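Module 6 notes. Inverse folding takes a fixed backbone as the condition and produces residue identities as the prediction. Think of it as a translation problem where the source language is geometry and the target language is the twenty amino acids. Below is one complete input and output pair. Work through it position by position during the lab.
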Protein backbone atom coordinates (compact mmCIF):
# COMPACT_ATOMS: atom_id res chain seq x y z
CA UNK A 1 0.00 0.00 0.00
CA UNK A 2 2.84 2.41 0.81
CA UNK A 3 6.09 3.35 -0.93
CA UNK A 4 8.84 5.78 0.07
CA UNK A 5 11.01 7.97 -2.11
CA UNK A 6 14.21 9.63 -0.91
CA UNK A 7 14.39 12.93 -2.72
CA UNK A 8 18.17 13.06 -2.28
CA UNK A 9 18.49 10.55 -5.13
CA UNK A 10 17.14 13.08 -7.65
CA UNK A 11 17.92 16.61 -8.86
CA UNK A 12 14.35 17.79 -9.52
CA UNK A 13 11.09 16.00 -8.73
CA UNK A 14 7.91 16.84 -10.61
CA UNK A 15 4.35 15.74 -9.83
CA UNK A 16 1.78 15.47 -12.63
CA UNK A 17 -2.00 15.38 -12.46
CA UNK A 18 -4.23 12.73 -14.06
CA UNK A 19 -2.84 11.94 -17.53
CA UNK A 20 -5.67 9.87 -19.04
CA UNK A 21 -3.69 9.14 -22.19
CA UNK A 22 -2.49 12.72 -22.80
CA UNK A 23 1.09 11.68 -23.56
CA UNK A 24 1.86 14.47 -26.04
CA UNK A 25 0.80 17.14 -23.55
CA UNK A 26 3.07 15.56 -20.98
CA UNK A 27 6.02 15.39 -23.41
CA UNK A 28 5.58 19.08 -24.26
CA UNK A 29 5.36 20.07 -20.59
CA UNK A 30 8.49 18.09 -19.68
CA UNK A 31 10.41 19.59 -22.59
CA UNK A 32 9.38 23.12 -21.55
CA UNK A 33 10.70 22.41 -18.05
CA UNK A 34 13.97 20.91 -19.31
CA UNK A 35 13.22 17.61 -17.61
CA UNK A 36 16.38 15.45 -17.52
CA UNK A 37 15.62 11.69 -17.52
CA UNK A 38 18.96 10.82 -15.93
CA UNK A 39 18.69 13.31 -13.06
CA UNK A 40 15.01 14.08 -12.52
CA UNK A 41 11.96 12.12 -11.38
CA UNK A 42 8.33 12.38 -12.48
CA UNK A 43 5.61 11.20 -10.10
CA UNK A 44 2.00 10.63 -11.18
CA UNK A 45 -1.12 10.87 -9.02
CA UNK A 46 -2.59 7.96 -11.02
CA UNK A 47 -5.14 7.52 -13.81
CA UNK A 48 -2.58 7.09 -16.58
CA UNK A 49 -5.17 5.57 -18.89
CA UNK A 50 -8.62 5.95 -20.53
CA UNK A 51 -10.46 8.68 -22.44
CA UNK A 52 -7.38 10.32 -24.01
CA UNK A 53 -5.55 9.63 -27.29
CA UNK A 54 -2.64 7.48 -26.06
CA UNK A 55 -3.44 5.33 -23.06
CA UNK A 56 -0.96 2.66 -24.16
CA UNK A 57 1.80 5.26 -24.41
CA UNK A 58 1.10 6.64 -20.94
CA UNK A 59 0.99 3.11 -19.56
CA UNK A 60 4.44 2.47 -21.07
CA UNK A 61 5.81 5.17 -18.75
CA UNK A 62 5.85 2.42 -16.12
CA UNK A 63 8.92 1.05 -17.92
CA UNK A 64 10.89 4.28 -17.40
CA UNK A 65 13.40 4.48 -14.53
CA UNK A 66 12.53 8.16 -14.05
CA UNK A 67 8.81 7.55 -13.50
CA UNK A 68 6.74 6.58 -10.44
CA UNK A 69 2.97 6.44 -9.96
CA UNK A 70 0.31 5.62 -7.44
CA UNK A 71 -2.66 3.53 -8.55
CA UNK A 72 -5.74 5.43 -9.67
CA UNK A 73 -9.34 4.32 -9.95
CA UNK A 74 -8.99 3.82 -13.71
CA UNK A 75 -6.12 1.39 -13.18
CA UNK A 76 -8.30 -0.26 -10.54
CA UNK A 77 -11.19 -0.64 -13.01
CA UNK A 78 -8.83 -2.08 -15.63
CA UNK A 79 -7.50 -4.66 -13.19
CA UNK A 80 -11.04 -5.68 -12.24
CA UNK A 81 -11.94 -5.98 -15.93
CA UNK A 82 -8.94 -8.25 -16.56
CA UNK A 83 -10.18 -10.45 -13.75
CA UNK A 84 -13.64 -10.39 -15.44
CA UNK A 85 -15.28 -9.06 -12.33
CA UNK A 86 -16.62 -5.78 -13.70
CA UNK A 87 -15.54 -5.26 -17.30
CA UNK A 88 -18.54 -3.11 -18.26
CA UNK A 89 -17.67 -0.40 -15.71
CA UNK A 90 -14.24 0.04 -17.30
CA UNK A 91 -15.63 0.04 -20.84
CA UNK A 92 -18.11 2.84 -20.18
CA UNK A 93 -15.38 4.89 -18.47
CA UNK A 94 -12.96 4.87 -21.39
CA UNK A 95 -11.49 1.37 -21.32
CA UNK A 96 -12.43 0.59 -24.93
CA UNK A 97 -8.97 1.68 -26.16
CA UNK A 98 -7.47 -1.71 -25.27
CA UNK A 99 -9.59 -3.61 -27.80
CA UNK A 100 -8.61 -1.16 -30.53
CA UNK A 101 -4.90 -2.03 -30.30
CA UNK A 102 -3.16 -4.45 -32.65
CA UNK A 103 -2.31 -7.88 -31.25
CA UNK A 104 1.22 -7.29 -29.95
CA UNK A 105 0.61 -3.79 -28.53
CA UNK A 106 -2.48 -5.20 -26.84
CA UNK A 107 -0.46 -7.98 -25.21
CA UNK A 108 2.11 -5.41 -24.04
CA UNK A 109 -0.61 -3.18 -22.62
CA UNK A 110 -2.26 -6.07 -20.76
CA UNK A 111 1.09 -7.01 -19.21
CA UNK A 112 1.60 -3.42 -18.04
CA UNK A 113 -1.96 -3.21 -16.72
CA UNK A 114 -1.35 -6.31 -14.64
CA UNK A 115 1.75 -4.60 -13.21
CA UNK A 116 -0.51 -1.83 -11.93
CA UNK A 117 -1.61 -4.23 -9.20
CA UNK A 118 1.84 -3.66 -7.70
CA UNK A 119 1.63 0.13 -7.73
CA UNK A 120 1.40 1.72 -4.30
CA UNK A 121 -1.76 3.47 -3.19
CA UNK A 122 0.23 5.97 -1.13
CA UNK A 123 3.63 7.40 -1.90
CA UNK A 124 5.69 9.20 0.76
CA UNK A 125 8.37 11.60 -0.47
CA UNK A 126 11.14 12.92 1.78
CA UNK A 127 12.67 16.14 0.49
CA UNK A 128 14.39 19.10 2.16
CA UNK A 129 13.20 18.02 5.60
CA UNK A 130 9.56 17.76 4.52
CA UNK A 131 7.27 14.75 4.23
CA UNK A 132 4.94 14.93 1.24
CA UNK A 133 2.28 12.32 0.60
CA UNK A 134 0.77 11.45 -2.79
CA UNK A 135 -2.42 9.42 -3.28
CA UNK A 136 -4.94 9.34 -6.10
CA UNK A 137 -8.16 10.52 -4.45
CA UNK A 138 -7.66 10.85 -0.70
CA UNK A 139 -5.76 9.80 2.37
CA UNK A 140 -8.80 8.52 4.28
CA UNK A 141 -7.76 9.47 7.77
CA UNK A 142 -7.31 12.69 9.74
CA UNK A 143 -3.77 11.70 10.79
CA UNK A 144 -1.06 10.27 8.54
CA UNK A 145 1.18 7.44 9.74
CA UNK A 146 3.58 5.43 7.56
CA UNK A 147 2.13 1.95 6.89
CA UNK A 148 -1.09 2.78 8.72
CA UNK A 149 -3.92 0.58 7.37
CA UNK A 150 -6.49 2.72 5.54
CA UNK A 151 -9.46 1.98 3.29
CA UNK A 152 -7.99 1.13 -0.13
CA UNK A 153 -11.26 1.83 -1.97
CA UNK A 154 -11.54 5.34 -0.54
CA UNK A 155 -7.89 6.02 -1.34
CA UNK A 156 -8.59 5.69 -5.08
CA UNK A 157 -12.29 6.70 -5.25
CA UNK A 158 -13.37 9.03 -2.44
CA UNK A 159 -14.40 12.65 -3.04
CA UNK A 160 -15.81 13.14 0.47
CA UNK A 161 -12.90 15.24 1.77
CA UNK A 162 -12.81 17.49 -1.31
CA UNK A 163 -16.57 17.98 -1.05
CA UNK A 164 -16.18 19.08 2.58
CA UNK A 165 -13.46 21.55 1.55
CA UNK A 166 -15.63 23.02 -1.20
CA UNK A 167 -18.44 23.43 1.33
CA UNK A 168 -16.11 25.17 3.81
CA UNK A 169 -16.08 22.28 6.27
CA UNK A 170 -12.55 20.94 5.71
CA UNK A 171 -9.46 20.82 7.84
CA UNK A 172 -5.80 19.77 7.77
CA UNK A 173 -4.42 16.24 7.82
CA UNK A 174 -1.79 15.89 10.51
CA UNK A 175 1.28 13.66 10.43
CA UNK A 176 2.88 14.98 7.19
CA UNK A 177 3.61 18.37 5.72
CA UNK A 178 1.66 18.26 2.46
CA UNK A 179 -0.75 15.95 0.63
CA UNK A 180 -1.25 15.75 -3.15
CA UNK A 181 -4.31 14.29 -4.87
CA UNK A 182 -5.84 14.01 -8.34
CA UNK A 183 -9.05 12.18 -9.32
CA UNK A 184 -11.53 15.08 -9.49
CA UNK A 185 -11.15 17.33 -12.56
CA UNK A 186 -11.08 21.00 -11.61
CA UNK A 187 -10.77 24.15 -13.70
CA UNK A 188 -7.60 24.99 -11.79
CA UNK A 189 -5.51 23.35 -9.10
CA UNK A 190 -6.81 24.05 -5.60
CA UNK A 191 -5.26 24.02 -2.14
CA UNK A 192 -7.15 23.57 1.12
CA UNK A 193 -5.04 23.66 4.27
CA UNK A 194 -2.12 21.26 3.52
CA UNK A 195 -3.95 19.39 0.74
CA UNK A 196 -3.48 20.06 -2.97
CA UNK A 197 -5.79 18.86 -5.77
CA UNK A 198 -4.03 18.91 -9.14
CA UNK A 199 -6.27 17.11 -11.65
CA UNK A 200 -7.11 20.00 -13.99
CA UNK A 201 -8.86 17.91 -16.64
CA UNK A 202 -6.24 17.79 -19.40
CA UNK A 203 -8.21 15.07 -21.19
CA UNK A 204 -11.22 17.42 -21.36
CA UNK A 205 -9.25 20.18 -23.09
CA UNK A 206 -7.92 21.97 -20.02
CA UNK A 207 -4.27 22.33 -19.03
CA UNK A 208 -2.10 19.56 -17.62
CA UNK A 209 -0.78 20.49 -14.20
CA UNK A 210 2.81 19.78 -13.20
CA UNK A 211 4.11 20.83 -9.78
CA UNK A 212 7.79 20.92 -8.86
CA UNK A 213 8.16 19.24 -5.47
CA UNK A 214 11.97 19.45 -5.46
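Target side of the pair, the amino acids:
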Amino acid sequence: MYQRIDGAAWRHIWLVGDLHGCLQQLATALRDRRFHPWQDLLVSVGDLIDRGPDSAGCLALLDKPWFRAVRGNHEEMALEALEARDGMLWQINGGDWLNQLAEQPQRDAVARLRRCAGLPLILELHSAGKVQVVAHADYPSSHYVWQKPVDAHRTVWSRERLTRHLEGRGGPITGADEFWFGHTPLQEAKTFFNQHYIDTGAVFGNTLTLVQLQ
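Reference fact for the lab report: The first strand starts at residue 2 and ends at 6.
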